[in-house]
Specification:
This protein is of the alpha/beta class. The chain has two domains: 126 residues, NAD(P)-binding Rossmann-like Domain (Rossmann fold, 3-Layer(aba) Sandwich); 176 residues, NAD(P)-binding Rossmann-like Domain (Rossmann fold, 3-Layer(aba) Sandwich). It contains twelve helices and twelve strands. The strands form two sheets. A seven-stranded parallel β-sheet has the order 8-7-6-9-10-11-12. The longest helix has 21 residues. The two termini are 23 Å apart. The model has no long low-confidence stretch (mean pLDDT 97). Bound molecules: 2-keto-D-gluconic acid (8YV). The site of 2-keto-D-gluconic acid has 10 residues, from loops. 2-keto-D-gluconic acid (8YV) binds next to loops.
Protein backbone atom coordinates (compact mmCIF):
# COMPACT_ATOMS: atom_id res chain seq x y z
CA UNK A 1 0.00 0.00 0.00
CA UNK A 2 1.42 3.44 -0.87
CA UNK A 3 2.38 5.68 2.04
CA UNK A 4 -0.43 7.92 3.26
CA UNK A 5 -0.25 11.52 2.09
CA UNK A 6 0.16 14.11 4.82
CA UNK A 7 -0.13 17.86 4.38
CA UNK A 8 1.88 20.28 6.52
CA UNK A 9 0.51 23.79 5.85
CA UNK A 10 3.20 25.67 7.82
CA UNK A 11 6.69 24.73 9.01
CA UNK A 12 7.17 22.49 12.03
CA UNK A 13 10.38 21.42 13.83
CA UNK A 14 13.01 19.79 11.62
CA UNK A 15 12.81 16.46 13.48
CA UNK A 16 9.03 16.30 12.93
CA UNK A 17 9.42 17.07 9.23
CA UNK A 18 12.19 14.48 8.88
CA UNK A 19 10.26 11.74 10.71
CA UNK A 20 7.09 12.35 8.69
CA UNK A 21 9.10 12.45 5.46
CA UNK A 22 10.49 9.04 6.35
CA UNK A 23 7.16 7.38 6.97
CA UNK A 24 4.69 9.18 4.74
CA UNK A 25 4.39 11.16 1.54
CA UNK A 26 4.72 14.58 3.15
CA UNK A 27 3.65 17.74 1.32
CA UNK A 28 5.15 21.00 2.57
CA UNK A 29 2.58 23.56 1.55
CA UNK A 30 4.56 26.60 2.70
CA UNK A 31 7.41 25.76 0.32
CA UNK A 32 5.20 25.88 -2.79
CA UNK A 33 5.30 28.93 -5.07
CA UNK A 34 1.70 28.43 -6.13
CA UNK A 35 0.12 27.21 -2.88
CA UNK A 36 -3.42 27.39 -4.16
CA UNK A 37 -2.65 25.39 -7.31
CA UNK A 38 -0.59 22.87 -5.34
CA UNK A 39 -3.33 22.41 -2.78
CA UNK A 40 -5.90 21.83 -5.55
CA UNK A 41 -3.73 19.11 -7.04
CA UNK A 42 -3.00 17.17 -3.83
CA UNK A 43 -6.20 17.85 -1.82
CA UNK A 44 -8.18 14.75 -2.92
CA UNK A 45 -5.44 12.42 -1.60
CA UNK A 46 -4.57 14.09 1.70
CA UNK A 47 -5.39 11.75 4.61
CA UNK A 48 -3.57 13.56 7.41
CA UNK A 49 -2.77 17.12 8.47
CA UNK A 50 0.19 17.97 10.71
CA UNK A 51 -0.24 21.42 12.23
CA UNK A 52 1.06 23.87 14.78
CA UNK A 53 -0.46 27.24 15.63
CA UNK A 54 1.55 28.68 12.71
CA UNK A 55 -0.90 26.96 10.35
CA UNK A 56 -3.69 29.29 11.52
CA UNK A 57 -7.19 28.08 12.23
CA UNK A 58 -7.98 24.54 11.05
CA UNK A 59 -11.73 24.46 10.56
CA UNK A 60 -14.57 23.48 8.24
CA UNK A 61 -13.03 25.46 5.36
CA UNK A 62 -10.04 23.09 5.44
CA UNK A 63 -12.18 20.00 5.96
CA UNK A 64 -14.33 20.97 2.92
CA UNK A 65 -11.21 21.06 0.78
CA UNK A 66 -9.79 17.75 2.01
CA UNK A 67 -12.44 15.07 1.39
CA UNK A 68 -10.17 12.13 2.32
CA UNK A 69 -8.92 13.70 5.56
CA UNK A 70 -8.90 11.25 8.49
CA UNK A 71 -6.70 12.88 11.12
CA UNK A 72 -5.44 16.28 12.26
CA UNK A 73 -2.31 15.91 14.41
CA UNK A 74 -1.81 19.15 16.29
CA UNK A 75 1.40 20.21 18.04
CA UNK A 76 0.53 21.49 21.52
CA UNK A 77 -1.76 20.51 24.35
CA UNK A 78 -4.10 23.43 23.63
CA UNK A 79 -6.04 22.87 20.42
CA UNK A 80 -8.20 25.97 20.25
CA UNK A 81 -6.65 26.52 16.80
CA UNK A 82 -8.54 23.44 15.55
CA UNK A 83 -12.33 23.23 15.29
CA UNK A 84 -12.58 19.80 16.95
CA UNK A 85 -16.40 19.90 16.91
CA UNK A 86 -16.46 20.34 13.13
CA UNK A 87 -13.87 17.58 12.79
CA UNK A 88 -15.91 15.23 14.98
CA UNK A 89 -19.00 15.90 12.85
CA UNK A 90 -17.12 14.60 9.82
CA UNK A 91 -15.52 11.63 11.57
CA UNK A 92 -12.08 13.25 11.51
CA UNK A 93 -9.95 12.54 14.58
CA UNK A 94 -7.96 15.37 16.15
CA UNK A 95 -4.92 14.68 18.33
CA UNK A 96 -2.97 17.00 20.64
CA UNK A 97 0.13 16.52 22.80
CA UNK A 98 -0.99 16.21 26.43
CA UNK A 99 1.16 14.83 29.25
CA UNK A 100 4.60 15.41 27.75
CA UNK A 101 4.67 19.13 28.59
CA UNK A 102 2.87 19.30 31.95
CA UNK A 103 5.98 19.50 34.13
CA UNK A 104 7.76 21.93 31.82
CA UNK A 105 4.85 24.37 31.77
CA UNK A 106 4.35 24.01 35.53
CA UNK A 107 8.04 24.80 36.13
CA UNK A 108 7.74 27.91 34.00
CA UNK A 109 4.53 28.99 35.72
CA UNK A 110 6.13 28.79 39.17
CA UNK A 111 9.22 30.58 37.86
CA UNK A 112 7.04 33.31 36.41
CA UNK A 113 5.16 33.68 39.70
CA UNK A 114 8.41 34.10 41.65
CA UNK A 115 9.86 36.39 38.99
CA UNK A 116 6.77 38.59 39.14
CA UNK A 117 6.51 38.80 42.92
CA UNK A 118 10.23 39.20 43.65
CA UNK A 119 10.84 41.32 40.51
CA UNK A 120 13.70 39.08 39.37
CA UNK A 121 13.95 40.35 35.75
CA UNK A 122 13.76 43.95 36.96
CA UNK A 123 16.54 43.27 39.49
CA UNK A 124 18.67 41.73 36.74
CA UNK A 125 18.18 44.83 34.60
CA UNK A 126 19.06 46.99 37.60
CA UNK A 127 22.45 45.26 37.94
CA UNK A 128 23.16 45.27 34.19
CA UNK A 129 22.38 48.96 33.96
CA UNK A 130 24.98 49.72 36.64
CA UNK A 131 22.44 51.16 39.04
CA UNK A 132 23.40 49.08 42.11
CA UNK A 133 26.25 51.42 43.05
CA UNK A 134 23.72 54.23 43.43
CA UNK A 135 21.62 52.39 46.01
CA UNK A 136 19.74 49.20 46.84
CA UNK A 137 17.06 47.69 44.62
CA UNK A 138 13.57 48.51 46.00
CA UNK A 139 11.92 45.94 48.25
CA UNK A 140 9.44 43.64 46.52
CA UNK A 141 6.14 41.93 47.31
CA UNK A 142 6.41 38.36 48.64
CA UNK A 143 5.04 34.89 48.07
CA UNK A 144 5.04 34.29 51.82
CA UNK A 145 1.56 33.91 53.26
CA UNK A 146 -0.19 34.08 49.91
CA UNK A 147 -3.28 32.18 48.93
CA UNK A 148 -2.96 30.88 45.40
CA UNK A 149 -6.03 30.22 43.25
CA UNK A 150 -5.56 27.84 40.33
CA UNK A 151 -7.99 28.54 37.54
CA UNK A 152 -8.28 25.20 35.75
CA UNK A 153 -7.08 22.20 37.77
CA UNK A 154 -6.16 19.92 34.86
CA UNK A 155 -2.86 18.08 34.53
CA UNK A 156 -0.82 21.30 34.31
CA UNK A 157 -2.83 22.97 37.09
CA UNK A 158 -2.20 19.97 39.33
CA UNK A 159 1.52 20.00 38.52
CA UNK A 160 1.62 23.69 39.51
CA UNK A 161 -0.33 23.05 42.72
CA UNK A 162 1.97 20.15 43.60
CA UNK A 163 5.03 22.41 43.27
CA UNK A 164 3.41 25.28 45.16
CA UNK A 165 2.49 23.03 48.07
CA UNK A 166 6.23 22.79 48.76
CA UNK A 167 6.35 26.59 49.01
CA UNK A 168 3.96 26.47 51.95
CA UNK A 169 1.20 28.54 50.36
CA UNK A 170 -2.49 27.69 50.60
CA UNK A 171 -4.14 26.52 47.41
CA UNK A 172 -7.68 26.76 46.03
CA UNK A 173 -9.10 26.09 42.59
CA UNK A 174 -11.97 26.73 40.26
CA UNK A 175 -12.98 24.57 37.33
CA UNK A 176 -16.20 23.37 35.74
CA UNK A 177 -16.74 21.01 38.66
CA UNK A 178 -15.35 19.99 42.01
CA UNK A 179 -12.88 17.13 41.63
CA UNK A 180 -13.03 13.97 43.71
CA UNK A 181 -9.90 13.07 45.61
CA UNK A 182 -8.53 16.62 45.53
CA UNK A 183 -7.83 18.30 48.87
CA UNK A 184 -7.50 21.88 47.62
CA UNK A 185 -10.48 24.06 48.36
CA UNK A 186 -12.99 24.38 45.50
CA UNK A 187 -14.65 27.68 44.51
CA UNK A 188 -17.81 27.62 42.42
CA UNK A 189 -17.05 30.75 40.40
CA UNK A 190 -13.96 32.53 39.11
CA UNK A 191 -14.90 35.63 41.11
CA UNK A 192 -15.19 33.57 44.31
CA UNK A 193 -11.75 32.08 43.64
CA UNK A 194 -10.25 35.53 43.04
CA UNK A 195 -11.88 36.92 46.21
CA UNK A 196 -10.29 34.15 48.26
CA UNK A 197 -6.87 34.44 46.57
CA UNK A 198 -3.84 36.75 46.44
CA UNK A 199 -2.60 35.10 43.26
CA UNK A 200 -4.69 33.72 40.42
CA UNK A 201 -2.92 31.37 38.03
CA UNK A 202 -4.80 30.84 34.77
CA UNK A 203 -4.26 27.35 33.36
CA UNK A 204 -7.59 26.69 31.64
CA UNK A 205 -7.74 25.70 27.95
CA UNK A 206 -8.45 28.48 25.45
CA UNK A 207 -11.43 28.65 23.11
CA UNK A 208 -14.88 30.20 23.17
CA UNK A 209 -15.87 28.55 26.46
CA UNK A 210 -13.18 30.36 28.46
CA UNK A 211 -12.91 33.63 26.53
CA UNK A 212 -12.42 36.54 28.95
CA UNK A 213 -13.03 34.29 31.95
CA UNK A 214 -10.71 36.69 33.76
CA UNK A 215 -12.55 39.99 33.32
CA UNK A 216 -12.82 43.29 35.17
CA UNK A 217 -14.96 41.70 37.93
CA UNK A 218 -12.44 38.94 38.58
CA UNK A 219 -9.58 41.45 38.67
CA UNK A 220 -11.50 43.66 41.11
CA UNK A 221 -12.09 40.60 43.31
CA UNK A 222 -8.37 39.76 43.23
CA UNK A 223 -7.60 43.15 44.74
CA UNK A 224 -4.74 45.65 44.99
CA UNK A 225 -2.13 43.18 46.31
CA UNK A 226 -3.29 40.51 43.92
CA UNK A 227 -1.20 39.07 41.10
CA UNK A 228 -2.40 37.39 37.93
CA UNK A 229 -0.25 34.75 36.24
CA UNK A 230 -1.35 33.54 32.81
CA UNK A 231 0.33 30.55 31.14
CA UNK A 232 -2.75 29.30 29.29
CA UNK A 233 -4.09 31.38 26.41
CA UNK A 234 -4.29 35.13 25.97
CA UNK A 235 -7.98 34.79 25.14
CA UNK A 236 -8.72 33.69 28.72
CA UNK A 237 -7.99 37.21 30.01
CA UNK A 238 -9.73 40.42 28.93
CA UNK A 239 -6.48 42.19 28.11
CA UNK A 240 -7.98 45.69 28.03
CA UNK A 241 -9.48 45.15 31.47
CA UNK A 242 -6.13 43.81 32.68
CA UNK A 243 -4.20 46.83 31.42
CA UNK A 244 -6.75 49.14 33.08
CA UNK A 245 -6.58 47.17 36.35
CA UNK A 246 -2.77 47.35 36.39
CA UNK A 247 -2.77 51.06 35.56
CA UNK A 248 -5.21 52.09 38.27
CA UNK A 249 -3.95 49.71 40.96
CA UNK A 250 -7.00 47.43 40.97
CA UNK A 251 -4.46 44.58 41.02
CA UNK A 252 -0.82 44.64 42.07
CA UNK A 253 0.98 42.89 39.22
CA UNK A 254 0.93 40.27 36.49
CA UNK A 255 3.15 37.63 34.94
CA UNK A 256 2.10 36.85 31.39
CA UNK A 257 3.42 34.18 29.05
CA UNK A 258 0.50 34.53 26.61
CA UNK A 259 -1.38 37.42 25.00
CA UNK A 260 -4.61 37.96 23.12
CA UNK A 261 -2.95 38.87 19.83
CA UNK A 262 0.48 37.22 19.83
CA UNK A 263 3.12 38.32 19.06
CA UNK A 264 1.60 41.75 19.73
CA UNK A 265 1.87 42.88 23.34
CA UNK A 266 -0.10 45.94 24.47
CA UNK A 267 2.21 48.95 24.50
CA UNK A 268 1.02 49.98 27.97
CA UNK A 269 2.31 46.73 29.52
CA UNK A 270 5.84 47.33 28.25
CA UNK A 271 6.28 50.36 30.46
CA UNK A 272 4.91 48.84 33.67
CA UNK A 273 7.38 48.03 36.46
CA UNK A 274 5.11 45.44 38.09
CA UNK A 275 4.64 43.02 35.19
CA UNK A 276 6.83 40.28 33.74
CA UNK A 277 6.28 39.51 30.07
CA UNK A 278 7.36 36.30 28.36
CA UNK A 279 7.08 35.32 24.67
CA UNK A 280 4.89 32.19 25.07
CA UNK A 281 7.67 29.87 26.24
CA UNK A 282 5.77 27.57 28.63
CA UNK A 283 6.76 24.39 26.81
CA UNK A 284 9.69 25.85 24.91
CA UNK A 285 12.67 23.74 26.01
CA UNK A 286 14.56 21.55 23.54
CA UNK A 287 13.59 18.35 25.36
CA UNK A 288 9.89 19.11 25.74
CA UNK A 289 9.38 20.43 22.23
CA UNK A 290 11.11 17.27 20.92
CA UNK A 291 8.77 15.09 23.02
CA UNK A 292 5.76 16.99 21.67
CA UNK A 293 7.03 16.51 18.12
CA UNK A 294 7.47 12.77 18.68
CA UNK A 295 3.89 12.52 19.90
CA UNK A 296 2.62 14.26 16.75
CA UNK A 297 4.54 11.72 14.64
CA UNK A 298 3.42 8.75 16.79
CA UNK A 299 -0.22 9.76 16.54
CA UNK A 300 -0.03 9.79 12.74
CA UNK A 301 1.96 6.55 12.66
CA UNK A 302 -0.36 4.57 14.92
CA UNK A 303 -3.35 5.96 13.07
CA UNK A 304 -2.17 4.80 9.68
CA UNK A 305 -0.55 1.56 10.93
CA UNK A 306 -3.12 0.44 13.48
CA UNK A 307 -6.22 2.60 12.95
CA UNK A 308 -6.03 4.23 16.39
CA UNK A 309 -4.75 7.54 17.68
CA UNK A 310 -2.69 7.72 20.87
CA UNK A 311 -3.99 11.01 22.22
CA UNK A 312 -7.26 11.98 20.54
CA UNK A 313 -8.96 15.07 21.98
CA UNK A 314 -12.19 14.32 23.89
CA UNK A 315 -14.46 15.72 21.18
CA UNK A 316 -13.18 13.14 18.68
CA UNK A 317 -12.07 10.31 20.93
CA UNK A 318 -14.92 7.88 20.22
CA UNK A 319 -13.72 7.14 16.75
C1 LIG B 1 3.12 25.84 22.20
C2 LIG B 1 1.15 25.60 23.80
O1 LIG B 1 3.64 27.14 22.32
O2 LIG B 1 0.90 23.29 24.07
C3 LIG B 1 0.35 24.37 23.99
O3 LIG B 1 -0.88 24.48 24.08
O4 LIG B 1 0.68 26.67 23.91
C4 LIG B 1 2.60 25.51 23.54
O5 LIG B 1 3.13 24.32 23.99
C5 LIG B 1 2.28 25.85 21.01
O6 LIG B 1 1.58 24.70 20.87
C6 LIG B 1 3.16 26.11 19.79
O7 LIG B 1 2.54 25.77 18.64
Amino acid sequence: MPAAQILMPAPMADDVVAALDDRFMLHRLWEQDDREGFLRSVAPDIRGLAVSTLAGRIDAAWFDRLPALEIVASFGVGYDNVDAGAAAGRGIVVTNTPGVLDDEVADLAVGLLLATLRRIPQADRFVREGRWADGAFPLSPTLRGRRVGILGLGAIGKAIAHRLAAFGVSIGYHGRSRQDGVDYRYYVTTVALAEASDVVMAVVPGGSGTRHLVDADVLAALGPDGVLINVSRGSVVDERALVAALLDGTIGGAGLDVFENEPQVPEALLAMPNVVLLPHIGSASHATRAAMGRLVVENLTTWFDEGRALTPVPETSRR
